[in-house]
TrEMBL record:
Pfam family, one: NMT1
Spans traversing the lipid bilayer: none
SUPFAM superfamilies reported for this sequence: Periplasmic binding protein-like II
PANTHER family, per the entry: 4-AMINO-5-HYDROXYMETHYL-2-METHYLPYRIMIDINE PHOSPHATE SYNTHASE THI11-RELATED, THIAMINE BIOSYNTHESIS PROTEIN HI_0357-RELATED
Record organism: Microbacterium mcarthurae
Protein name per Swiss-Prot or TrEMBL: ABC transporter substrate-binding protein
Length: 348
């Protein structure tokens, strides 16, 4: 294992885009005396430390990272962390997760020297939520409607129309992440995480309808796992170890969704005021999104360069993205090949 100069390295591309970004404090489980001598592998998360990262919290509690000879450090994300790829490219973390496939490809196209090695979600958790009294169940239902969404998602909404052979015809309303715009009647639909934002409506007793981006034609990965290229070249063994422990955590998470939810409430998100019942439901909702025909055959976190090229790139082109990077230059399936060694599971 080489000692990486990763944290001192700064890409010109990232330096220009990181101005003004808030400093993010890391968190990790309290290390034992033995663990204090182990190498630390930091990961920039794309959201706050709730149950969205269930597999990681299970891996921590079961000691999987320690078994692999590493200490995992977690850098929380959130609404003020706009681009995790920038953070990794700037040298502040060797591993990162990104929610949106389109923004990840944007960053790679603009010069971020990172390598895509896996994806937690095999499909996007994003959906369009609407009130049951005025439901949106298809792209045809979106025609002429007011769609609320965080600024920047217009191209994905446009792509939904284009993919389905229609001209974009809707009113975009920038609302951030607040579901109340839908409840108050300010919009007819909102883009939201189906795993958790729908639960907020449920708790308010609001009858709503949800249609996934996948069902609308946006079938792409989410919570992609990527690594700084130089760090990967110098520390491949640590990245493989991190992936192996993380896979085990996500495998075990499927056995009992309540365990990771409790860890999120009591440990990792203890200062977030999380609801245990909501976290359990969110974990139940997300577990099916971590699986696919590919993961059934080859194991969790898997990605396919062929699927990106043949199935996802046409979606990006429909979103108006051109000059897409050569998949072979930034996708590496070999690390998870090494993790699984020909099997499709690690714990069973």
């Amino acid at each position: 294992m080489k000692t990486s100069s990763h944290r001192d390295r700064r890409l010109a591309w990232a330096g220009a885009t990181m101005v003004g970004m808030l400093t993010i404090a890391g968190c990790a489980a309290e290390p034992s005396t033995e663990e204090e001598s182990l190498p630390v592998v930091a990961t920039q998360l794309n959201w706050v430390t709730n149950v969205e990262f269930a597999g990681m919290w299970i891996a921590e509690s079961e000691g999987y990272y320690a078994e692999e000879g590493i200490v995992a450090e977690w850098l929380p994300g959130g609404p003020n962390v706009s681009n995790t790829v920038q953070i990794v490219a700037s040298g502040d973390a060797p591993i990162g997760l990104d929610t949106n496939f389109t923004s990840f490809i944007d960053a790679v196209s603009e010069g971020a020297d990172v390598v895509l090695v896996g994806a937690v979600y095999q499909e996007s958790p994003l959906a369009i939520l609407s009130l049951s009294e005025n439901p949106i169940n298809s792209v045809e239902d979106m025609i002429g409607k007011r769609i609320g969404s965080p600024q920047g998602q217009q191209r994905e909404l446009d792509a939904i129309f284009t993919i389905n052979g229609l001209e974009p015809d809707y009113e975009f309303v920038p609302i951030g992440y607040d579901v109340q715009a839908l409840v108050n009647g300010d919009v007819d639909g909102i883009t939201a995480f189906a795993t958790n934002q729908g639960l907020i409506l449920e708790e308010q007793g609001v009858d709503y309808t949800s249609v996934s981006w996948q069902d609308l034609g946006l079938d792409v990965y989410s919570n992609m796992i990527f690594v700084d290229r130089t760090y990967l070249e110098e520390n491949r063994d640590l990245v493989v170890a991190w992936l192996r422990a993380t896979v085990k955590g996500w495998e075990k998470n499927a056995d009992d969704p309540e365990v990771a939810a409790q860890l999120a409430v009591d440990v990792w998100g203890a200062d977030l005021g999380l609801s245990l019942s909501q976290q359990i439901k969110e974990n139940i909702n997300q577990i099916p999104m971590t699986t696919s025909d590919l993961t059934a055959e080859s194991g969790l976190l898997r990605i396919s360069a062929e699927d990106i090229e043949q199935k996802m790139y046409p979606i990006l082109r429909a979103a108006g993205m051109t000059d897409l990077p050569d998949v072979a230059t930034y996708v590496d399936e070999s690390l998870l090949d090494e993790v699984f060694g020909g099997s499709a599971t690690l714990l069973r």
